[in-house]
Amino acid sequence: MNQAAAAMPVLQPGARAHIVAPASAPRQPERYTAGVQALQREWTLTEAYAPTPPHGYLSMPDAERAAQLQHALTAPNVEAVLCARGGYGTMRLLPHLDWNAIARATPRWIVGYSDITALQWACWTHLRWPSLSGPVVTEWAQLPAAMRDAVFRATDPAPYTPAWHSHPAPTPWTTGTARGTLLGGTLSVLTRLLGTPHMPDLTGAILLLEDVQEPPYAVDRMLMHLELAGVLDALAGALLGQFSAPDSVSAPTLSMDTVLRDYFADRSYPVLAEVPYGHLLPRCIWPMGVPVRLDTTTSGASITCYPHDSPSEATEHTEPPVESQN
After folding, report:
1. What's the rounded Cα separation, in Å, for the pair 324 and 181?
2. Do 205 and 311 share a domain, yes or no?
3. H helix count then E strand count, the chain
4. Across the beta sheet with 109-112, what order do the strands follow?
5. Could you report the per-residue pLDDT of 16-56, keeping only the tens digit for each?
6. 175 and 138 in a common domain
7. Which of 29, 122, 234, 318 is spaced 20 to 30 Å from 179 by Cα?
8. What is the C-alpha separation between 87 and 71, in angstroms, rounded?
9. CA 131 to CA 83: how far, in whole Å?
10. Domain count, the chain
């Protein structure tokens, strides 16, 4: 995880952005329209997805979504690609993108989460483009001002510390200091990249995970997939966000907390749980693919992101590491 990231733009109000729909169509078109209107007050929208009758659970057929996304990733004078919604379908586009052409374009931030995890991880793997795990357009009109501001602050040259907003402080499960590249997203999406050319090497990474509407046994199965693939042993640290189960879960079952602790509570590296990150608002904004320092103690934790540093430069900002202990 020591490859240099691309030189990314600093996003400020007025930044130029495309809106794309690489996965599903907005469930409520009025929420999408309200989001676009809210974005227009802070961004310069150079092009925006125009909702059409959806193609089943996809916003459009693959060829149309891939062409729209390819254009957004290569068009000149674009600083960010904003995603209309998650849902499902982004992964279907990865084989259809011209990665060589995208590599010749100026880097830009991909902003989104959930199903957009697939695109963000692929862009890190092929291009070393960091991304922002942040709001989709259908959420923008409901965002607290602090979250809207954090989207811009997370791309500043200055070190960035995610805000917990109104949530309680996260809980350290193991203590110590870790430095590494922050990568993560929705567990059920990222595990589907294992064994593909779009999966990044997570050796030495700090992995951030969340998921929604997955029963404990399904989260268990996905974490065991990562364990059997050697991913969890190779990490430098882990951040665990919000994991919500369906309203009805078949009995007997383990609790979600038990499942997560089975995989992370005895690690030799620092693990921070109950991080306000997931599918619910408000939540932290995270710059993925950038160097971070994670410090956990028995009394609390701190996380510092360095969006415009190389891993070695980020290390120079920090003190000598603390011994990890359980």
Report:
1. 18
2. yes
3. 10, 13
4. 44-48, 16-20, 80-83, 109-112, 131-133, 286-288
5. 999 999 999 999 999 999 999 999 999 999 999 999 999 99
6. no
7. 122
8. 21
9. 12
10. 2
